[in-house]
Amino acid sequence: MRICHVITKPELGGAQLSTLNLISNLPEDRYQVSIITSSSGILRPEFQGLKHATAYFLPLLTRLINPIVDILALIHIYLIYRCNRFKIIHTHSSKAGVVGRWAALFAGVPAILHTVHGWPFNDYQLFLVKRFYIFLERITAVFTTKIICVSKKDMETGLKYKIAPREKFALVRYGIPLYRFKHSNCDKAAKKKELGIDNDDPVVGMIACLKPQKAPLDYIKACADVYNRMPGVNFLLIGDGVLKKRCRQELDKSSLNGRFIFTGWRRDISEILDIIDIAVLTSKWEGCPIAAIEALSKGKPVVATDTGGIRELVKDGITGYITTPGMYKDTADRISRILTDRGSFSKMSEEAGKSIDDSFDIKAMAQAMDDLYKGIA
Predict the structure, then answer these.
(1) Which CATH number belongs to the domain containing residue 135 in this structure?
(2) What is the Cα–Cα distance from 275 to 186, expressed in whole angstroms?
(3) What number of H helices and E strands is found in the chain?
(4) Measured over all CA atoms, what is the biggest interatomic distance in the chain, rounded to whole angstroms?
């Protein structure tokens, strides 16, 4: 069965990692897989190196909206579809989801699927902008065979805004290489030294793209608040993005005194999580953050804002804490509470590790998607 995945940019994000994991774990004897993505991004080598998959890199497939460029990208994708006669088109993320699905409609592809890694509309947008994105999703959903959500919350949101009828939705949760996360053998002292940590104090960390959605400035402010109460704490920010300069400016205004480390993008997330005591997410909106799944699987309490499907992952007061988006002091309070109560920290760590079972493994995700493909082909 010929199937083509389309995703906007090969950056280090949940949607991209999930797509890589899915393609790598589909039965090789059943699918002939292709992937269309942008030409630039840190994960390009991983997409290019996929075994048993053909990668197409399109310079015109960009995240920013540009009607002329987007139409040219649509035409290019349409031509790839026509040349390969795919049975299924499976799009990911908002921009590729619209452009890729319309190209599939014009190319006459039999089955069109789209995974929602968080809806393109949110409460932080201007009213008309939000309504435009809702309208765009509604008309594109008309000819979409299945809309796949990674959280129940996203499915409820789609139904709330009448994107599509309930029978068009399917729930397939993210999967991670669970065994690798649960059984890593990291030399913690060496890893700390590599990252520039020369003490045995607790480590708080956030893994995120530095963009408005993830609100990294709120994380830095929360870290400064914690540090003012408890100077003996280290802070990590793992990621990169458009807000990096503003993050550094915010850090320069704080009193963190060398206790805050920017690592940039890292591919050794499993090992970094071994030295982190508490994982933090300060997002303004989300789908289902894969960083939270990874942290919980390692037995790390998670302090995360109440967005998207986070309540389906973090049990408030049991495996971590759920805080209010935009309220960095709320986040700081919860981090401090865990750090000052070691008994509570140990119990949370134990419960966090138990909360991520085999249903979050990449093989479970691939099996669920395989069943979905077979059901619509």
Answers:
(1) 3.40.50.2000
(2) 9
(3) 15, 13
(4) 62
Q: How many domains does the chain fold into?
A: 2
Cβ atoms of 283 and 325 closer than 8 Å: yes
The answer on 116 and 185 residing in a single domain is no
135 and 12 assigned to the same domain: yes
Residue 18 Cα distances to 181, 225, 277, angstroms: 15, 34, 25
Structure tokens at 328: 């960095």
Length of the chain in residues, anyone? 377
* Global confidence as pTM: 0.93
- CB 293 within 8 Å of CB 270: no
- 148 pLDDT more than 90: yes
Q: With the C-alpha atoms ordered 240, 12, 334, 230, is the resulting torsion angle positive or negative?
A: negative
pLDDT digits (tens, 9 = 90+) for 35-71: 999 998 889 999 999 988 999 999 999 888 889 999 9
Both 17 and 43 in a single domain? yes
Nearest partner of 320 among 352, 360, 277, judged by Cα: 352
Take residue 113 and report the two structure tokens written for it. Answer: 């699927």
Determine the structural domain holding residue 19 and report its residue range: 2-175+361-376
Tell me, yes or no, whether 200 and 132 share the same domain.
Answer: no
For residue 185 the two structure tokens come to 């053998």
